[in-house]
Amino acid sequence: MKTKRLLAGLLSAVLASTLCLSGCGADSGVMDAANANAVTGGDSSLPVITWKMGSTWGSGNIHFSVDQRFTELVSQLTGGRFTITNYSEGELCAANQLFDYVQNGTIECGGDWGGYWSGKDTAFELLSTCMDNFTALDYYTWIYQAGGMDCYKDLYGQYNMEYFPIVTNGTESGIRSVRPITSIADMQKMKIRLGGVMAGRAAKKLGINITTVAASELYESLQRGVIDGGEFSGPWADDSLKLQEVAKYWCAPAWYQSSGVNGVMINKNAWDKLPEEYQVAIETAAKTCCGEQLARYTWNDITTANKMLTEDGVIVTALNEDDWQTIRETCRQVYEEEAAVNENFNKVYSSMMEYRDISATYRDMLGDYSWGFNYDDAN
After folding, report:
1. Widest Cα–Cα separation across the chain
2. Do 334 and 205 form a contact (C-beta atoms < 8 A)?
3. C-alpha span between 25 and 21 (Å, rounded)
4. DSSP secondary-structure letter at 46?
């Protein structure tokens, strides 16, 4: 009975939040106290708990705002009795230290992008990004309907953590460069910043010189000629770094990251101490956040890309079809090589490819109606 009341309250609160988002035009949404109390039933016997949440993202980063939205929802869903304080990258620890801080219980949770933990296990990268494979909607569907969540629970669980995705974002912008890129040969003559271990391996096979540059140093590195091209994220996030000011050329789309996932990792011991109501609130907040952010990222990427092309003077280039095929074959080869030597990687990759196999027939049937098509006014 208690669980039924809890789930009913959660549904009421989430619906109220969604209605506010659609009716008020708010970017983050506001849930009133009455709806928040509906989740806990106004149960003042539930403990007051405060957690710390570190982040791999800086305070001005678009991705950090998703961490903040997640913690806002948790507070709203528990009537303010469970609060999680956000700390941006560097405030509690460096980005590359966050995993250990959460695993060891130094802090209770952290907002992450799993690719940062590829040095521990390359399977983390597949849980956060993929080359020439999933779209944001694929990740979203795979996670919540096709077994993907089990992969997150299993891998992070090996490191004493629970895990919840909080955003599936679309394809990255592509490579922004100081000179136009129209071929693999063009990239071979440049120093390029690419994130991700697998993308680095693919680039090496393609003869592309990859240079390591922190995201916070990307603008200056392009400006000073330390690198000739680089990537960060989608157009909206790129705009937060103003990369279009120092790299006018944009080679799209992004073969090295066709989509991505950010999430929240939670220390298992801290998780186990939570009342069931708070655990359900975290899970619900993560799912709600994931749905909101899919639309938020997509729309803001659309409008920001339009601005870059019409107002900022960005020039879009593309690779030829033969080079695209070479890249596609190289990416698959890199994945298959890693799957052959890493059991965890193979488990995640096999699950992703099984999803693709199951969805292939219907995806082909839909054709242009899958993602959509543009009207040709000339016809």
Report:
1. 66
2. yes
3. 6
4. S
Q: What's the pTM value of the predicted model, to 2 decimals?
A: 0.86
The total number of residues shown for the chain amounts to: 379
Torsional sign, CA 140, 144, 146, 149 = positive
Written as one letter, the residue type at 131 is: M
Q: pLDDT tens per residue, the chain (379 residues)?
A: 344 344 344 434 443 444 343 333 334 333 333 344 445 545 678 999 999 999 999 898 889 999 999 999 999 999 999 999 999 999 999 999 999 999 999 999 999 999 999 999 999 999 999 999 999 999 999 999 999 999 999 999 999 999 999 999 999 999 999 999 999 999 999 999 988 899 999 999 999 999 888 888 999 999 999 999 999 889 999 998 999 999 999 999 999 999 999 999 999 999 999 999 999 999 999 999 999 999 999 999 999 999 999 999 999 999 999 999 999 999 999 999 999 999 999 999 999 999 999 999 999 999 989 878 888 765 5
Question: What does the alpha-carbon distance between residue 258 and residue 11 come to, in Å, rounded to a whole number?
Answer: 32
Please report, as a single letter, which amino acid is at residue 313.
G
367-371: list long-range contacts, CB under 8 Å, 24+ apart. Answer: 371/135
Structure tokens at 197: 């271990």
Strand-pair category, 161-169 with 129-130: unpaired
Closest CA to 153 of 266, 20, 277: 266
Cα 352–Cα 369–Cα 171 angle in degrees, nearest 5: 50
SS3 179: coil
Q: What are phi and psi of 251, to 5 degrees?
A: -90, 110
> Per the structure block, which two tokens stand in for 3?
């669980």
Return the sign of the alpha-carbon dihedral for residues 138, 143, 148, 151.
positive
Q: Is the peptide bond before 180 cis (omega within 30 degrees of 0)?
A: no
Residue that is written with structure tokens 């440049």 in the block:
190
Specify whether the CB–CB gap between 261 and 139 falls below 8 A: yes
CA distance linking residue 75 with residue 285, whole number of Å: 9
> Taking the alpha carbons of 68, 71, 75, 78 in that order, is the dihedral positive or negative?
positive
Give the pair of three-digit tokens for residue 120: 């521990």
Q: What structural domains does the chain harbor?
A: 175-256+310-340 (3.40.190.10)
